[in-house]
Amino acid sequence: MRPFGERWRAPYACDPWASRGRLYPEAVSPTRSDFQRDRDRIIHSSAFRRLKHKTQVFVYHEGDHFRTRLTHTIEVSQIARALARSLGLDEDLAEALALSHDLGHTPFGHTGEDTLDECMARCGGFDHNAQALRVVTRLERRYPDYDGLNLTWETLEGLVKHNGPLLDAEGQPTLRYAEHGVPLAIMEYNAVQDLELATFASGEAQAAAIADDIAYDAHDIDDGLRAGLFKIDDLREVPFLNGILAEIDSRWPNLELSRRIHELTRRVITRFVENVVAEGDRRLAALAPESAEDIRKAGETVICFSKEMREADAAIKRFLYARMYRHPEVMRVRAQADQVLRDLFNRFKAEPELMPEEWRADLSKDDEPRLARRVADYIAGMTDRYAILEHRRLFDVTPDLR
């Protein structure tokens, strides 16, 4: 029975009362929809709590005002809900996908993912999306009847496919997986529960994915300015940002820097959100979908930026790549983080008995792929500070990552 006061959804929204269900069937909740239950299970998971001490760009102790994976996730969730509400999608599913999208990230941001991918090169590589799927289907061990969180098909599908199909119509990997193939963890799970890897994801998943881009652009500008990696007027080389700064300076010519930065970032978010809603409305009107399946089979992303705003997004990312992500100070810390995780991986793989008992159970050094994957799972779940503490426990010298 649908609860009293349920929000309106468009016909193309995913309907929690018509979900394809869970791998392990469960009784319907009398107080929450299936997507609300998914959201709540994600929030109460151990992996979600660990996001508090996982890096975005800066290590955890650099400053209290810099984003962590947790604060980034909360910002993505807020934007995803706003998009879903405006476009008639299911807000709870969009929020669940936003809250879960970074559960597979390693300590030390993208540096950790790159390091583990290299360490795992002979054993299937490492991909944070595939790791998020492992977290919610295997690695979270909280319930008596199954491993994982037993999320709905729609949440798992969106988690895996939020960036688009993984396979083409012939079953071959799409361009982003053409070189190394679809990650093994995804293919293994897909053999158990078909996530339809050759179709696009739901509108809710697309909203969560574009919300991630919006949040990244805005908060990395904010964090980069706070860290002194570039100055606010350096942003004028990006035409989109130059236009916003001109608006702010025209209205408030003597605005103090902190307020100027905040006004810039809030306007960036607003412009992006309004553009996605307008472009989504335009594409939805042209497609005229009558169900969530129509969006999955549209052959293109429906919830996205306009061409003009895609160019603005790309220009911001080019600026941040050159001036922030590849800044000498950031690169120096990245090199130290790489050393910490590489040392840990090699040591645990050579001496798995150094891992906690639950992680070393049933392991054999003769089964390299299984051993390597267990070590990668263990390290990927670490927070920044725990990885540093483990390195200090096992090695005489540990970089201070400052």
UniProtKB/TrEMBL annotation:
Claim: Hydrolase is one of the keywords in the record: yes
Residues in the signal sequence: none
SMART domains according to UniProt: HDc
The keyword tRNA processing appears for this protein: no
Pfam families, per the entry: HD (PF01966), HD_assoc (PF13286)
Gene3D superfamilies from the UniProt entry: Hypothetical protein af1432 (1.10.3210.10)
HD domain ranges (all copies): 69-217
One of the GO biological process terms: dGTP catabolic process
Keywords: Hydrolase
InterPro entries found in the cross-reference section: dGTPase, dGTPase-like, dNTPase_2, HD/PDEase_dom, HD_domain, PHydrolase_assoc_dom
Single GO term (MF): dGTPase activity
HAMAP family for this protein: dGTPase_type2 (MF_01212)
Protein family membership: Belongs to the dGTPase family. Type 2 subfamily.
Stated name of the protein: Deoxyguanosinetriphosphate triphosphohydrolase-like protein
Organism of origin: Microvirga vignae
